[in-house]
Amino acid sequence: MKSFKKTRSLFARASKVIPAGIYGHASPAMMVPGAFPYFAKAAEGCRYQDVDGNSYIDYMCGFGPILLGYQHPEITQVAREAEVDGECFNHPTEYSVRLAEKVVEQIDRADWAVFGKNGSDMTNWAIRVAREQTGRKRVAKETQAYHGIDPWCVPGYGGVIAEDRSQVDHFYWNDVSSLEKLIAEKADELAAIIVTPFHHPNYADSELPTSDWVGALNRLSQKHGIALILDDVRSGLRLHANGSHCRYGLEPDLMCYSKALGNGHPISACAGTSAFKVAASKCFLTGSFWNCAVPMAVAMKTIEITERDAIPEQLEERGTQLIEGMLALGKRYGIPLRASGEPAMPYVRVAEDSSFKRQQQLCAAAVQEGLFLHPHHNWFLSAAHTEEIIKESLQSFERALISIIET
Ligand SMILES: Cc1ncc(COP(=O)(O)O)c(C=O)c1O
Predict the structure, then answer these.
(1) CB-count burial class (<10 Å; 0-12, 13-18, 19+) for 128
(2) CB of 234 closer than 6 angstroms to any ligand 1 atom
(3) What element of type H or E holds 301?
(4) 119: Cβ below 6 Å to ligand 1?
(5) Which CATH number applies to 5-60+310-405?
(6) How many CA atoms lie within 13 A of 239 on its CB side?
(7) Longest alpha-carbon distance in the chain
């Protein structure tokens, strides 16, 4: 059995000085309390260690940022080189211009780009740009979609007032009629429709977009002059080197990135079409650390490697190997599993398990076997998940399945 002794004592200390001890998506309450690691110590490639020294093959990749692997040698080298000249200045550095040029060169439909630190910085700002552009107030989002921690969209109601959400409307994923109905009622008031490339709600299967859905988003946003914002924060660079919209044929006006963009370094970006450039220039945007050089240098390298090494294609192949292997094992041991989402960001769970109890048992057993799988959130692959690593993961997964058969 893995020991979580230091984990427990650190969490007790954290609870005294940090509200909730660990907050947000990393909270133990979001996983399987008592059966999962809480604090990380070190990581390399696709493996990480917790504070108790337990080691895991990681299928969460820092909840997305680790695209190429932890401590990727080329990324580490670029970061060190950039750091030599300093990190935080009065002005942006040349890296900001070169990174914007790189984004414009590589991301389809991008004519310009700006940078921040977190995904929420960019989703929130993109909505302001859409409002400036259209002169309208309302924003339409999918009911369960996560777009960040700003009051208009943060999950839950802590500290949120009714006015924060008073300009937000909802539609359902892949449900063209729910979008058409909303637009029939409020087209003239809608500044933006914000969507993720595919649907990846927590505590539910992921859903890919149908071609009807993509067609409706393009057609209705263009017909009614509503800005289409692609929140590519979670999927960006994993599904397509030129932006996830290229995978599905979506035609966004504004595209938001973060997570994989810096392979673990803090950076986010919003890119847009030339039609939105003047409006973008009118929406004040800044942050104390947003011009820092190192994450920008790293992001340039990450984008370059993504295309050079065909990373999305690699992830798709490895993800397919993982999913097919897991489903076959589930069948062999009489625990039917269901896979959803994209192979690069798969989600496999116990079928017919609406309470997610069996799924939690399985993921807790996987942790014991050195495999970090989230019970209720989509997973992530990185380029460090080689064919051999997937085989090793499947062996661990098999032992986890066997261990829960009798329970
Ligand atoms: C789809 C999506 N949008 C926005 C965000 C917010 O990004 P951040 O946590 O970097 O602010 C996230 C974070 O998980 C996300 O998955």
Answers:
(1) middle
(2) yes
(3) helix 293-308
(4) yes
(5) 3.90.1150.10
(6) 21
(7) 63
Q: Do domains 5-60+310-405 and 73-308 have the same CATH topology?
A: no
Task: Confirm or reject CATH 3.30.1330.30 for domain 73-308, answering yes or no.
Answer: no
Instruction: Report CA-CA distances (Å) from 376 to 25, 30, 251, 330.
Output: 11, 8, 30, 18
Instruction: Sort 387 into a burial class: Cβ within 10 Å, 0-12 / 13-18 / 19+.
Output: exposed
Q: Residue for token digits 């259209």?
A: 134
> Is the Cβ–Cβ distance between 21 and 13 less than 8 Å?
no
Does ligand 1 come within 6 angstroms of the Cβ of 117? Answer: no
Q: In angstroms, rounded to a whole number, what is the distance separating the alpha carbons of residues 190 and 171?
A: 13
State the Rg of the chain over Cα.
Answer: 21
- Ligand 1 atom 15: the closest Cα is on which residue? 234
What is the full per-residue pLDDT of the chain (407 aa) written as tens digits?
899 999 999 999 999 999 999 999 999 999 899 999 999 999 999 999 999 999 999 999 999 999 999 999 999 999 999 999 999 999 999 999 999 999 999 999 999 999 999 999 999 999 999 999 999 999 999 999 999 999 999 999 999 999 999 999 999 999 999 999 999 999 999 999 999 999 999 999 999 999 999 999 999 999 999 999 999 999 999 999 999 999 999 999 999 999 999 999 999 999 999 999 999 999 999 999 999 999 999 999 999 999 999 999 999 999 999 999 999 999 999 999 999 999 999 999 999 999 999 999 999 999 999 999 999 999 999 999 999 999 999 999 999 999 999 77
The residue type found at 87 is E
Q: Which helix (H) or strand (E) holds 363?
A: helix 357-368
**196 ligand 1 Cβ < 6 A:** yes
Our measurement of the distance from residue 300's CA atom to the centroid of its chain's CA atoms, rounded to an integer in Å, reads 19
In eight-state DSSP terms, residue 216 is H
Indicate which residue's Cα is closest to atom 16 of ligand 1. Answer: 234
CA distance 371 to 42: 16
Q: Is the CB of 148 under 6 A from ligand 1?
A: yes
Indicate the SS3 state at residue 260.
helix
| Domain chopping of the chain, boundaries | 5-60+310-405, 73-308
Q: Tokens for 314?
A: 């690699």
How far does Cα 253 stand from its chain's mean position?
20
pTM of the model: 0.98
Q: What is the DSSP letter of 386?
A: -
